[in-house]
Amino acid sequence: MMKIGVRVTDHFGKTALKPKDEDYVKALISFFSWFLPAFLFVLWSSYCYPESEFYSKAINEGKAPNFWNLIGSLGVLLFGACLLLPKTRGISYVTNRVLLNTYSVGCLTLGLVVGQLFFLPYDTLTWWQAGLFGSGVVVSLFFVICFNLIVWYLAFLTSRYSQFLDKMATLSVFYRLPISLTVMSLMVYLLLNA
Asked: Is 85 helix (H, G, I), strand (E, B) or coil?
């Protein structure tokens, strides 16, 4: 029994699980190409056209956590399918695209939210409210960024640059099936009970 556990653990090497430097650079470029325009748009519209109902609605529609949750859940559901059928390139390609789009939507939403933080009425808060609000915002933004990075990492694992799915394909279906069914069942349960 111990031998099987060691073999499975040793099965995945650094190349299968660790992105290369250029993968991190691509993720940063994607982050800033979605985050910065959204952030700058919020600053521009809030400063130059604060009464514009059209811009306000566009910003509020862009902050779509339910949309991010829905396509992210679909991406994780497809990731579970990739674990079960790792040699099926069509599923891994679609999974990668859905997860990368989820990451992009998360970056856009983050840019809109951070931009709006600059125009909140902080002068109406007492010192302790400002401190509590500030620390709450920092912690919340940290978790949002971490969730978005997890989505990006799952997209990396399904990309053609990672050997993760190739390594999964060499594992017995008896290892892949329970993991895959757990991931897919959890996503179906969350989607049906949202």
From this structure: coil
- Alpha carbons 117 and 135: distance in angstroms, whole number: 13
Burial per residue of 171-194, b for 16 or more beta-carbon CB atoms within 10 angstroms, e otherwise? beeeebeeebeebbeebeeeeeee
- 53-62 and 89-117 helices cross at what angle (nearest 10)? 140
Question: Cα torsion for 177, 9, 6, 87, to the nearest 10°?
Answer: 40
Q: What is residue 50's predicted lDDT score, i.e. its pLDDT?
A: 87
pLDDT at 22 over 80: yes
Do the Cβ atoms of 97 and 152 come closer than 8 Å? no
Please provide the DSSP assignment of 141-158 as one string. HHHHHHHHHHHHHHHHHT
- Do 187 and 35 meet the contact criterion of CB atoms below 8 Å apart? no
The number of beta carbons lying within 10 Å of the beta carbon of residue 156 is 23
Tally the residues of the chain: 194
pLDDT single digits (tens) 78-136: 999 999 999 999 999 999 999 999 999 999 999 999 998 888 777 777 777 778 788 88
pTM of the model: 0.86
